[in-house]
Design a protein that fits this description.
Oligomer: single chain
Distance between the termini: 35 Å
Number of helices: 12
Structural class: alpha/beta
Radius of gyration: 27 Å
Helix content: 40-55%
Shape: flat
Number of domains: 3
CATH architecture of the largest domain: 3-Layer(aba) Sandwich
């Protein structure tokens, strides 16, 4: 899964187009290739032109234009530089394979901008943030001048009352800018959030895996830029579950593995919430199928299809433990089949659980919307 794959679903200007320093191992491979180009003997004008174009691409890559790698076809390098050139190109490709921290941030920022500009907007008028930073706490009963409250919506009754009081003191226009009022709210508490993403192969066959990756990157961008006091964990779950960094999620190969071990994922989420006691606990589960695996008493994964009753029992017990910890749990379901509907009916009965439906287009906006709702 190469870095250039992530350009095609950003929905706007290429966030990877800006220069970014290559890794040291990539630069060493570039130096090898440039030495081979310098030592190569050209036997025709066409051959010299190809070597010059290759040298130019290598120079651009070394200066940070990592898109220049696409111009270095392995077959051409073997023809021009022999097996040594092909081997150096393979080392360069391996070193360049991942995304740098800056590129990950750009992808997350691009996804966040895309979702907030309305591409894939939620039905029902969910327009995003209600105030500075994207959300507000409980109303205090007091009101603030509009200019002191950022972009919160106006409170019409409080504004009319302020204008009436001003006119009672002295005649004047029916409404002045200083009459505008918004409701004051308490500061919002920081949150501990676990985003659990189904890594099963069905997410690939239904073309949902890239949408899930993009939603996670946008969530990280939102937290980094507007909620830096929050603590966000991303967990991927297949046959077993594992906590993932944004880079690890992007690099995940989505190979065909059996199992949807939500039991293990919820256990990791509960550990995250326990480590951050005192923060508002939230869990978001993104899945397109029912649980088909759980952890056994020895800590190993147990997979069965069709699922055995013990898998469901273990998963629901872990969900109940998360709810007892005070967390609100949102299930985002990306499919609709009889077995998933039966699982949905079981979790919807629990206080503190919300279940919503989504597709690839709505997934990102919906995850951000549920995250913002404290």
């Amino acid at each position: 899964m190469g870095r250039f794959r992530y350009r095609r679903y950003t929905g706007g200007p290429d966030p990877l187009a800006e220069p970014d320093p290559p890794a040291d191992a990539a630069l060493r491979a570039v130096d090898e290739l440039r030495a081979l180009v310098a030592a190569a003997e050209a036997d025709s004008d066409a051959h010299r032109a190809e070597l010059a174009a290759l040298e130019a691409a290598l120079s651009r890559y070394g200066e940070g234009d990592r898109a220049a790698l696409a111009e270095m076809d392995p077959a051409d390098l073997r023809r021009l530089l022999g097996p040594e050139g092909e081997a150096a190109r393979a080392r360069l490709d391996s070193a360049d394979h991942g995304l740098s921290p800056r590129e990950l941030r750009r992808l997350g920022d691009a996804a966040l901008r895309d979702f907030e500009k309305g591409r894939g907007a939620l039905p029902g008028g969910h327009a995003g943030p209600a105030g500075p930073g994207g959300a507000t706490g409980e109303p205090t009963g007091a009101f603030l001048p509009y200019e002191a409250a950022g972009d919160r919506p106006l409170d019409a009754p409080a504004t009319a009352r302020e204008a009436a009081l001003r006119r009672a003191r002295a005649a004047g226009p029916s409404l002045l800018p200083e009459d505008l009022r918004v409701a004051e709210t308490e500061p919002e508490s920081a949150a501990a959030v676990s985003l659990l993403i189904d890594l099963s192969h069905s997410m690939v066959t239904r073309s949902l895996h890239e949408a899930a990756t993009r939603a996670a990157l946008a969530l990280h961008a939102l937290v980094r830029t507007r909620y830096p006091e929050d603590r966000v964990q991303v967990v991927g779950f297949g046959e077993s579950a594992v906590e993932l960094t944004p880079a690890e999620l992007v690099a995940h190969d989505w190979r065909r593995v059996p199992g949807t071990n939500l039991h293990h994922a919820l256990r990791l989420a509960r550990g995250h919430l326990r480590r951050h006691r005192g923060l508002v606990p939230r869990v978001l589960v993104v899945t397109d199928g029912e649980p088909t695996a759980h952890l056994g008493e020895d800590g190993g994964a147990r997979f069965a299809w069709p699922p055995v009753p013990r898998t469901l029992e273990a998963t629901l017990a872990e969900l109940d433990a998360v709810l007892r910890a005070g967390a609100e749990v949102t299930f985002v379901l990306l499919a609709d089949d009889p077995r998933l509907r039966a699982f949905r009916a079981l979790v919807e009965r629990r206080r503190g659980v919300r279940v919503v439906d989504a597709d690839a287009d709505l997934l990102g906006p919906l995850v951000l919307d549920r995250y913002r709702r404290r």
